[in-house]
Structures
1.
Amino acid sequence: MSNALVVNDVTKRFGQSVAVDSLTFCAPSGQVLGFLGPNGAGKTTTLRMIMGILYPDRGCVEVLGQQLTDAVKDRVGYLPEERGLYRKMTVEATLRYFGRLKGLRGRELSRRIDDHLARVGLADRRKSRVEALSKGMQQKLQFICTLLHEPELVVLDEPFAGLDPLNVDLLERLLLQIRQEGRTVIFSTHQMEQAERLCDRIVLINRGRKLLDGTLAEIRGRFNARMLVLEGEGDFSALAHRPEVRQARVSSGQARLELRDGADLDALLHQAVSLVRLRRFELQRPSLQEIFVRLVGEDRPQSDAAGSEVGCAQDRPGRLA
Amino acid sequence: MRKIVLVAWREYIETVRTKTFFISVFLLPALILFFVFGAERLAKLAEAEKLPPRRLAVLDETGRVFEVLQQEIEAYNQRNPNRPFALEQLLPQACGGGDSPAASAREEPTAAVRNGELYGYLRIPAEVLVAGSAAACELGRRDQQLAARRDIEQMLNRAIQIARFRSVEPPIDPALVARLQQEVPLIAIDVRTLRVGRDDTVVRLLTPFGFMFLLFMGTMQISYGLLTSLLEEKSSRVIEVLLSALSPLQLMAGKILGMATVGFTLLLIWVGVGYQVAQTRGYDYLFSRDLLFYAGLYFVPGFLLLSSLLAAVGSACNTLKEAQSMASPITIVTVVPMVLWFSISQNPSSTFATVLSYIPPITPFVMILRICADPDVPIWEIVASQILLWLSVAGAIWVAARIFRVGILMYGKPPTPRELLRWLGRA
């Protein structure tokens, strides 16, 4: 499978601070890649370097198999985190302008504008000025500005932030459609539930470095730690201190226990049955949210032994002084 | 290149469509037209109103001036039927005694002026008839009309002079004196057109200024338009979408090209209007083709220089206020020719003017002033100033491109001059 995007050992500094630190990952063609990380992790900087808006201090980015040239830019769609349109231009003029900038022209451009406006239900507003549109409509217009030229690679920076539920749904449908057409999507988010639903592949970064990279299944599989969920009547708190339990969240009538590798499940269940009247017990894989919180929580600046148990971030780069 | 043209085209269309552009295009020519045609007519309109006679009391202590003055006033009233004077003689005896004769003489007529019975009063002391006397006459009046004061002063002086001629022994005929003093006119001859006899001193004086002003307005207004449009793109965050489609350099080039076209449109309209006005007024010989050619020749690099500097400023700032304070050194320099235009156009080949011609941001304005004032500016000066101008354009674009690339994505505090220098060093 070829890669639509390769980020190879990229570093970017702003003054003293290192925003992106020897980052390497790739986005296979035809897949949806989730680019995750807490605020300030370096997501936007990375995406801007992919788009050629910022230049890396070190390393290189390859888009659609080559260096980012004007011609390649025309095959990529980008939705920045900070969105904006010309307020005084009409919807149609806006689309025409951005379409032309991306290399569309003539009848093809008009056809695409009609088509995309109809797709998001803005066909009757084509003559309106952008400033006269509601916020939701402006968001829709921004999507189709990004997608009008049917880019082979779509790069979206926090696309779901600030959207109303209807537009969240619309954008999800658009993304899945793009994927069905065999095109590639990379989007950054910190909504794990969304990433879990939409992505084929996940890259998690923190403080400019990669913590995790792989398909959803791989990532879940790598985490041997499993969640034991117990429900019933009685006091679960004694379970929290068992050696098999790595971490526990106990409330009245419920306990969520994270098990250590090779934990003796039988012994644990025995004690549970002796303590409380069990109604339900279930073994779960950790959610992406839990993996995220755990990895990022462990990756604090001071603790140099951070994430020693995490076997996923292959060849973790050394930190630059 | 295609993308640069696209950006330029959008910039042009969106700017030309705005109300601000419409106003700036038509307001300035409208003002010029008003001053050329309207003001004169308006003044005539105001003079057409018939005013009641202005009553002027004259205390003639010489006893000889009043009569002559009366004749002058009558002649004046015939020339200005709408705003006549009416003279009344006050007799010296009519005034009561007091501490000082002059002060007591003033008392009654000033009171009459104050309560509105009289327009004014005039006191002519006896000493004025003495040859070489430094004595002054007094005028007290209700309003501050400049023309009235000037007219009264002229008539009074003529009357006193005539009275003086008559009072010497033997008397001199004032009519003879007037004939002897007949002034000789000085006819202006244009050495280039060989035209004769047209008094165009004022027009000639103002033409260089007019040309420079057009160039100045075209450059400054449009460059500042570029600045605001950049700031708008930055604050509405369109900039990042644009940068995902083209490089910062393409964006900057496109915007400057678009705005330069706007500036050219503006200048074409203005020069067109100016040409029409000159034609109808018979001053078309002042609008030579050479001059128009030079205006274009200096507009292009002058505009590029200023607009690329302002583009750099605009990219580094976030609000108009920040940008204005950062651009103020540039603005101040460009105002220099506006202040010095008179001395430059009066002495276009002075060392002073020559030196000013080689300070890049103001080169176009100074050169156009000099060429207008004296079309025979040496050709080497034109070539040298053009070379210098284009070199500084190249330098400014280089600097601007670097600042632009870093600054365009910077939000927050505007950079200090030191930070700007550091940006220049970045690849």
2.
Amino acid sequence: MRKIVPVLAALAAATAVSACGKADPTLHIYTWADYFKPDIVRRFESVRSCRVVIDTFDSNESMYAKLKAGASGYDLLTPSSYMVSLMHAQGMLRPIDRALVPNLVHVDPEYLKTAVDGTMDHSVPYMISNTGIAYLRSRVADFVPSWAMFGRADLKGRMTLLNDMRETIGAGLKFLGYSLNTTNERELEAARDVILGWRANIAKFENEQYKTGLASGEFLLVHGYSGDILQVRKENPDIAFALPLEGAALSVDDLVIPVTAKEAALAHAFIDFLHDPAVAAENTAFLGYLCPNLESYGLLPPALRNDPAVFIDPELRAKSEVIKDLEAANALYVRIWDEIKSAK
Amino acid sequence: MRRSRLPIWITVGAMVFFYLPIAILVVNSFNASRFGTGWQGFSLRWYAQLLHEPEIWLAARNSLLIAVGATALSVVLGTAAAFALHRFGRSRLQRFHYALVYMPLVVPEILMGISLLMAFAATGVGLGLGTIFLAHVTFCVSFVAMTVLARLQDFDDAVVEAARDLGAGWRVTFRRVVLPMIAPGIAAGALLAFTLSIDDFVITFFVAGPGSTTLPIRIYSMIKFGSPPLINALSSILLLVTFTAVILSQRISSPRR
């Protein structure tokens, strides 16, 4: 019994420490793991003389479930844009006060044209990543950055497409020059027929093993996420990444402030800090995703600037799109996807 | 008479099924390859890199603090519950009590997590280490109570009567007679509570608040952007701690030789 008391006291003390800090305001961020360069966070702490506490989630859905059930105390979140739409529709987000975030003038206007929240009313874009084609330079002859690669007979059985309804149907739609958020049935059926042609040519639809398969040479060309490819490329320098000239899918994580935030002003200040061009460039270089901050592009090291896995050519980005939540039209995609997966 | 080989093969199959994934994880934590794309030589670099991850250590500190605290409190409450259940098990009230204690063992974790979070949100309790601690005590108490109760069922009440006959007060009887006899059950329950608390993800995920990320939550969220071999190394360490606790608990609770 006597041993328990100090333990409980220690626990109470620890709770007290995390609850106090009235002198130094504390910014609580709920985000993906390793999603801010640690040095940037430390600099913000000293500039604003505050503390930053970062907690992490593993998926948009689990974060949403937790907040929806009543969890509060977070001042800044980084959900993907489709989740931002949903949370906004449910009234869970605060509007962004532009006066507190002067650096928003640096946000890339070309990107905002394709964004879900194009006026930055309740969200500010943080990081963009994209899907594209990765391949082994030494094993794929005459590479052309086009979705048409999946029809190439000489690579038969050595390629993979993502096992993701929206990504893969989107690739077919883009190949045909349609929007990947289309709800036109004829366009979707045309995309289905294209993908059925590719299906006969690929090894399988694959979301995870394609990375290791490419690194080990089992697959020669894969449809994949830029972040994943960046990681395996460190292992096998023969891997190259390209964005198809027809355009591809972009995914974006946004900075948002929940209505329950206690330190909303500090959260605004942090958003402003992240969109300082020098900070944005530093973060992009650290993470390997692109912060859509126009002024920061010129500050990126040339190696990154020329890397299609990080820096998307503005012309190609204009052709690329963010996958949007289509609500009722999702059923149409599910049907087309079923037809693709079940065809003999 | 020839005995069937079938049980052996089923046992071997089950062991492979249970332990092969763990073995692969542990082996990969020593793999020099960053991406697990085949064996690239033995390396301790992931363990070395762990030393430079302050957020992981903060999460580990949180986990340990909660596990130790929750174990301590649930041992006291669980043992008391076991005594009540053992002494007055026949009464209606205690049958109800038994059902209450038993409930957390069978209620799905996700249900418990969400309902605890909703209860905390409704009562305005700020989420943090305190709420995780309370949630862990809630389910640990049941495991301790059941373990101690099992021990009490073999307990010979005549010994207590003998002690009282010989003039010992209830305090002395408890300290010198009862406690030493049930101590192995309490220790086993404590270790069980500790392992459950330090591993728990689902309930913790829901009741964790700002600044109280625990090790399992940290590991899980590292899967998306983090480095896979780092997770392997961290999981191997966690496995070592868990296995040690389980083996100790079995040692202690097995009958005295």
